[in-house]
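Example record

One chain of 331 residues, shown exactly as stored in the release files.
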Amino acid sequence: MKKRYKLLISILFIIMLVAGVFIYENDYAMQEKDVIIRTDQGDLAGFVALPQEKNEGVVIFVHGDGAQNATQDGGYKPLMERFAKQGYASVSWDKPGVGKSTGNWLDQTMDERAQEVEDVMEWAENQDDINTEKIILWGASQAGWVIPKVQQKREDVTASILVGPAINWLRQGAYNTTEEMKSEGKTEDEIMQVLNNDKKESDLILAGATYEDYIEETADDSLSEERYAFVQKNISADATEDIEKIESPVHIVLAENDLNVDSNETEKTYKQLLPKSQLTVRIISGVDHSMLNPALHESQILTYLSAILAPKDTLVSEEYLDYCEELIRHM
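Predicted structure tokens for this chain:
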């Protein structure tokens, strides 16, 4: 009887401990609220994280590729909390067609994505609880073709933080294919064969081939018709011209082990186009494109458990979070 009692107490203690960790790790030091951001293009389901004390400015979050919701399933919240601790609100939103946002993100060009960011900025300027004296644009990956479009034309953008931004759509695709195949142990001949085939497919898309003609010519059905249309609208994306027109500070954050975006090309391009006084570049050690905690890279199960049980302290690279917070502190 005593053994059963001790076992029961032990089980209850473990349950209470796990519950306590869960509550702490999912309770962020910021005021969270859902909003509707009305624009000429439609309604966006937004998420706002407000600082609890100081009110220094606002960070506008710009998604990368894919059907992203406002917080990236909570993945943005550890970073938003860091910004809140420095007195900055964060504003993000479900992409069009995701969650309660109207429209379809696959219908957008990069110019239209940039206009969407401007619409959100203008919405934020009309909110009593958001200070827009300092507006920081934060964005990852595909946002590297969006944020420079906004930053180079808006004087009210204080600075940008670009995480793993690509420069050129086609070169980025070729780099990603090459690095992924290398990681799988493919030979140079195998890689070259795939790259040559990808080029033929890209040439068809650039030439304006219909989806039906593309399928018939290539037998590649990996793209849905909507995705094909999105690629066709944006395959010529190149950030170079927009970057060289930027006049406010740019902070580039790169991954040491990025298989998606060529960190060397990104660093070289920004350093060529912007003066030293306007640019900082930091490479985060051990991480891949996602900026997740390097200890989680090899295990989807650990990543999943971390995202649920302890996202605040274990999901995202600590070096990355510390650096982004330090950037904001000195804005």
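Notes: The chain has 13 helices and eight strands.
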